[in-house]
Amino acid sequence: GARMPPTLWTHTLCPYAHRASLALCEKGLRPRAFERHVDLSDKPKDLFRVNPRGLVPALECEDGEIVTESSRIIVVVDERFGERRSLTRGPRDEILEFARDADAAGGGFVSSGLSFVGGGWGIRRGMPRQGQVEAFQRSVRALDDRLRGSEGNYLFGADVSLADISIWPFAERFQLAMREFQGYDIAEGAEYFAAWLTAMSARDSVRSLRPDDEALLRSWRRTMRLDYFDYETTSRESP
């Protein structure tokens, strides 16, 4: 049959889907050429054809293969898309392991950050319990230690990799949310992590995919949920 161009079924405010768009960008591609933005509050039937669970992101490849986990999608994008350099330059196995484990429950950056902000995907005003603060600080310290030993600005050296891409969408949101709702600086006492945040923020890929902070904050204040985009019509362009 005819080969279809690849399609990234996405919601442009979802942090998991954000990983896939970021990987496309870093491979020198225009994510908007691949993205099929889905209104998660009114899911089209087509989405369930691609992913019976009705979740994004889902990558529909040219050969019809469908990949549904963001940690796997970014590997496929790196291996098959774009001409630009590999996103696993350096210790490839370590980079892949880091990206694969980014969402592991129990003390990782993503899981402890979500707990810090409010638990689940909710947002709570004020500092969380001491144990939650310490768990998140431990995860940041682990990243800071890795960056201290890195031979560049990024987690595995001088080149951005799938490791950086796997946690950036959460770092971007946590930094904004913690400053607003907890009055907390995400990089407190972590100078290498602070430098990583600065380096990542300055990348064209990151800047091109970042929704307007103030508009996003207004929606967070109104809904007190990081995942409010699951329940109403919204997008990167109008968060």
TrEMBL record:
GO terms for cellular component: cytoplasm. Residues 85-226 form the GST C-terminal domain. Residues 4-85 form the GST N-terminal domain. Gene3D superfamilies: 1.20.1050.10, Glutaredoxin (3.40.30.10). This is GST N-terminal domain-containing protein. It comes from Ostreococcus sp. 'lucimarinus'.
